[in-house]
Amino acid sequence: MFDKSTWIRLPRNVVVGHGVLSETLDAVEELHLTGRPLVVSSPTPHEVAGQRVIDQFADAGYDPDHIIIEEASFDAVQEVIAHAEEVDAGFLLGVGGGKAIDITKMAADHIGKGFVSVPTAASHDGIVSGRGSVPEKDTRHSVAAEPPLAVVADTEILAQAPWRLTTAGCADIISNYTAVRDWELAHRLKNVPYSEYAGALSQMTAEMLVENADSIKRNLEESSWIVVKALVSSGVAMSIAGSSRPASGAEHLFSHQLDRIAPGAALHGHQVGVGAVMTEYLHTGPQGRWRDVRDALAAIGAPTTAAELDIDRDTVIEALTTAHEIRDRYTILGDGMSEEAAIEAATVTGVV
Ligand SMILES: NC(=O)C1=CN([C@@H]2O[C@H](COP(=O)(O)OP(=O)(O)OC[C@H]3O[C@@H](n4cnc5c(N)ncnc54)[C@H](OP(=O)(O)O)[C@@H]3O)[C@@H](O)[C@H]2O)C=CC1
Ligand SMILES: O=C(CO)COP(=O)(O)O
Ligand SMILES: [Zn+2]
């Protein structure tokens, strides 16, 4: 008997474009959500967008409440849950970068309320996914969370955000190349379930971004449009897979480890980009395509070296040799790299 089944949870409304923040209320009303909106943001996103979202709901006769979180942590998730219960929130809007959006989707999942994603930075592909990613002590949890019912991505706001946030989003997408390689490897070696659709979509998304690299330029709103479309597509790949596998392989393990060893040094997307240069080298060897990954990153102005990440050589080597320990995800790192091999990979690729 055929007894396979799957759930693919995707957003119903994806609204992208110039000035669409003013359509947040319309995008939400179409979802037939009821009750009090709770707007969750972090300090800067609250200034650039959160307050305007609150005003929109207030003007329409809702009674919106809001909370501002400072960090991506399980404590922050608990804080939002407690606040949402206290004010009897009907649904939650996460307005911000990855921090605010992750916290909101995890809190919404816990209390069983709808979640709407309003990114203020095109900095990574968690804006559409049903996964939250939170560090805790020596590990990092990629947890199932409430996927957004709607995404409202205002390219005017995204284009005004610091440029480095956009190049980080590009690098997060470029890292899909190596993430898919790791996923295929884990499938072949460890029988990890693999989705051809999700793998192909993730890879195609990276290819389209690289092909459009010439149009990705500072002060050009079209750049935000190209990047956000890629982020949406990558998020959809993760939703199809039901895991972050299509967009997170060894390059992400390296980045997560950097977050522990050198917290706050660089942006998520920039770290995974540099990680992808090295893991592409590990997959394909000295004559392989690691130069293509490096050149694609350089073309959009993302870091390709440890120095550009503001991270020293020893930290890179430590992160590379310990990255496999951070979570149970089989990748090209296998059961760990020796120090000599890590130095070789980082040196040959020019990362250190
Ligand atoms: N769920 C998933 O699949 C994924 C989750 N993540 C998670 O996302 C987080 C990283 O995301 P990232 O977006 O880089 O981090 P943040 O949300 O911390 O945003 C980065 C910085 O940009 C600021 N910012 C955001 N929007 C604007 C804007 N429009 N104008 C000016 N400044 C702005 C923030 O301000 P302020 O400090 O005031 O908030 C912050 O200082 C991590 O916690 C990571 O684990 C990353 C990838 C995927
Ligand atoms: O960053 C991500 C995809 O780009 C999410 O991956 P993780 O599951 O490794 O946190
Ligand atoms: Zn990522």
UniProtKB/TrEMBL annotation:
Gene3D superfamilies: 3.40.50.1970, Dehydroquinate synthase-like - alpha domain. Pathway: Membrane lipid metabolism; glycerophospholipid metabolism. The lineage of its organism: Archaea, Methanobacteriati, Methanobacteriota, Stenosarchaea group, Halobacteria. Its EC number is 1.1.1.261. Zn(2+) binds at residues 172, 252, 268. GO terms for cellular component: cytoplasm. Substrate binds at residues 125, 172, 256. CDD domains: Gro1PDH (cd08173). Its cofactor is Zn(2+). It holds the Pfam family Fe-ADH_2. Keywords: Cytoplasm, Lipid biosynthesis, Lipid metabolism, Metal-binding, NAD, NADP, Oxidoreductase, Phospholipid biosynthesis, Phospholipid metabolism, Zinc. NAD(+) binds at residues 98-102, 120-123, 129. GO terms for biological process: glycerophospholipid metabolic process; phospholipid biosynthetic process. It is found in: Cytoplasm. InterPro entries: G1P_dehydrogenase_arc, G1PDH, Glycerol_DH. NCBIfam families: PRK00843.1. Catalyzes the NAD(P)H-dependent reduction of dihydroxyacetonephosphate (DHAP or glycerone phosphate) to glycerol 1-phosphate (G1P). The G1P thus generated is used as the glycerophosphate backbone of phospholipids in the cellular membranes of Archaea. Glycerol binds at residues 125, 172, 252, 268. It catalyses: sn-glycerol 1-phosphate + NADP(+) = dihydroxyacetone phosphate + NADPH + H(+); sn-glycerol 1-phosphate + NAD(+) = dihydroxyacetone phosphate + NADH + H(+). This is Glycerol-1-phosphate dehydrogenase [NAD(P)+]. Belongs to the glycerol-1-phosphate dehydrogenase family. The gene is egsA. It comes from Haloarcula salinisoli. It is an enzyme of class 1 (oxidoreductase).
